[in-house]
Design a protein that fits this description.
mainly beta; Elongation Factor Tu (Ef-tu), domain 3; 141 residues; 3 domains; globular; two-stranded antiparallel sheet
Length: 141
């Protein structure tokens, strides 16, 4: 790390993706580059619930953007699963429509999930393009 004093973490995955706990409260050299996309699966007792596979208990998740369009996204607080959970759903403070998208950013563990990874390029230029979709073991789909 002495050779690269501007980096904030030597962790190979999250250090590069900007998803360490440090990145929650600090502007750093590494720009967060991972979004977690889920959807509202159901509503119970006035709380929406979204799929949360790949959640890491020390992931520092706090909020989600939820809605059916970019213009309609609203910020909502995440209710974390209890410590006994082994297959995760996140609760949200408010009800939302089933099928609404939920966008989150947290310290994920993709290798422990049935979720897929979608690599996208061209976001900064306004020309997003899917590079590939991969399973949790890195196999191209």
């Amino acid at each position: 790390m002495k050779q690269y004093p501007e980096i904030t973490s030597a962790e190979p995955g999250h250090g590069l993706s900007g998803t360490t706990p440090y990145h929650v409260d600090h502007d750093a050299e590494e720009i967060p580059s991972v979004l977690y996309l889920s959807e509202v699966s159901h509503v119970l007792d006035n709380h929406a619930y979204i799929y949360g596979g790949g959640y890491y208990r020390r992931g520092h998740i706090q909020n989600a953007l939820v809605g059916s369009s970019y213009e309609g996204l609203v910020k909502d607080s995440v209710i974390l699963p209890d410590m006994d959970s082994i297959d995760y759903h996140f609760g949200l403070e408010n009800p939302h429509y089933i099928g609404d998208s939920a966008v989150l950013c947290f310290r994920y563990q993709i290798f422990v999930t049935r979720s897929d990874v979608c690599l996208i390029k061209g976001i900064h230029s306004g020309k997003p393009e899917i590079v590939g979709i991969y399973d949790s073991l890195g196999g191209k789909k």
